[in-house]
Specification:
This protein has 288 residues and is of the alpha/beta class. 50% of the residues lie in helices and 18% in strands. Bound molecules: ligand C2E and magnesium ion (MG) (3 copies). It comes from Pseudaminobacter soli. This is Bifunctional diguanylate cyclase/phosphodiesterase.
Length: 288
Amino acid sequence: RAKADVTRAICFYELRMDEASRTRQTLARDLRRALELDQLELHYQVQTSVSTGEIRGFEVLLRWTHPERGHVPPSEFIPIAEENGLIMAIGEWVLRTACRQAASWDKPYKIAVNLSPVQFAHPDLASLVKNILTETGFDARRLELEITESTIIADKVRTLQTLRRIRELGVTIALDDFGVGYSSLDTLRSFPFDKIKLDRSFMSELEENPQAKAIVRAVLTLGKSLNIPVLAEGVETDDQLTILQTELCDEAQGFFLGRPKPVEQIFGLEGADSDADQQFSGRMPLAR
Ligand code: C2E
Ligand code: MG
Ligand code: MG
Ligand code: MG
């Protein structure tokens, strides 16, 4: 009887696994088609100076609206694209499209593009970046590439080489989701970063968890000692922003300052991001 139960459970499990892998296969096929049919879209989320509220740049976030399923989040389709290699073509599309779009803006804001560890493992990444900059006429100094610690773990020597080649172009590198990956301190010691992006989980606990606040403070001190600016991700409330101002955090990004928006909507009538403007208007910038 117990054996029959186990057998039934295994069959059920296999059925579910089949279902899951079928869904993944379907999604992979649809994603490939979406790329070919130009159905992917880029949203932009503002990054601001904590002390002045000034716009520092925009993070580029990939969006996919599936014809039947509707919005599919990147956390669902990026892993699928990484698994089957499609991330190479998608990543190239993201980079080229973002550079092309931002090249036509009135103001020379920076853009920050996420890179997958799979893209980073490719030996030609630096040449690809260089070619896209040339092709779109986009100023290298306006481009930032975001990588996470999982990128570095793969192959340290090669990653370091690629990072150097990219930085020689004038492109900057940000360490994304800092604080939740492995070997954070070794990463900072061994690799050249132009920015640290503190993972948003620290923001969500900032107000009620004294440990989270202590860690935020320590990371800000670390950033200052290493001379690397720190951006706080996931700022959702006025109180969080106030704490960041008190703690002299450099930059912030989050729903409170502006949601990711389609490119046509990021500039308000004033020519600046209106959400961020509103949040900062009437707020006295702290002296630094
Ligand atoms: P990420 O690079 O850490 O991007 C920040 C994520 O946090 C975005 O989720 C953004 O919408 C979300 N976010 C921003 N502010 C807030 C906030 O105040 N509260 C909360 N709860 N969330 C906030 P999204 O767009 O769903 O992207 C998730 C992840 O998918 C990104 O994390 C990044 O790792 C990956 N991703 C997105 N676009 C690309 C891309 O073009 N290429 C690659 N390789 N990965 C991408
Ligand atoms: Mg990012
Ligand atoms: Mg992040
Ligand atoms: Mg993330």
